[in-house]
Amino acid sequence: TQLLEQSPQFLSIQEGENLTVYCNSSSVFSSLQWYRQEPGEGPVLLVTVVTGGEVKKLKRLTFQFGDARKDSSLHITAAQPGDTGLYLCAGVRGGSEKLVFGKGTKLTVNP
Amino acid sequence: AAGVIQSPRHLIKEKRETATLKCYPIPRHDTVYWYQQGPGQDPQFLISFYEKMQSDKGSIPDRFSAQQFSDYHSELNMSSLDQGDSALYFCASSSNSGGGTDTQYFGPGTRLTVL
Question: Among A30, A92, B75, B114, which one is most buried in terms of CB atoms within 10 A?
Fold first, then answer.
């Protein structure tokens, strides 16, 4: 079973549209990170959230950590073709150091 | 800013051979993590080291071993390779001293192909 359920798995939208990616779990995480990964490359960190209810903005990207620290969302406003890529959520549970990853959302933004 | 360095970037081996992957963490980072990512899969945690001591262990085969050296770089040693070991191997580093948020920064990966 996947500890972090990420949805949708695939998303294809037109330039200018908004989208939201969800990352859900029944477990509590001490922190949660969002990465973007290009094929054959390492995941690149976008943001880390650590406090329940925390909201962080990175230009057109808004990240939210759930109040109970069991879920997170990534919202992209006015998507651009340059946003195309694989978005991964990953969390750290208390008492462990390892990152547990979701399966990823493969986003395609069409011009 | 300096990032995590991994070498080699690509490695091709025959079955039953050995391989050594190297990782140089971000300066002043004290913790190193190794992950394996198969085709179309999410990264899976293998092992981590904090201050040169193994700190956590995941799904690492007994044929693999790793260590962290005094300069904080780490090496992943893989023996008796088989085709199922073909994957991208990532190293990540973080600073876990002084109340850090344990954010992990990933290197570019080593693509291992076992023929």
Answer: A92
The alpha-carbon gap from B9 to the nearest alpha carbon of chain A, in Å, equals: 10
**Burial (Cβ within 10 Å: 0-12, 13-18, ≥19) of residue B11:** middle
Do the Cβ atoms of B101 and A98 come within 8 Å?
no
B103 interface with A at CB cutoff 8 Å? yes
Cα B112 versus chain centre, distance = 12
Residue-wise pLDDT for B3-53, tens only, equals 999 999 999 999 999 999 999 999 989 999 999 999 989 999 999 999 899
Chain A residues inside the 8 Å CB shell of B50:
97
Q: Cα–Cα distances in Å, from B25 out to A6, B3, B81, B95?
A: 29, 7, 25, 10
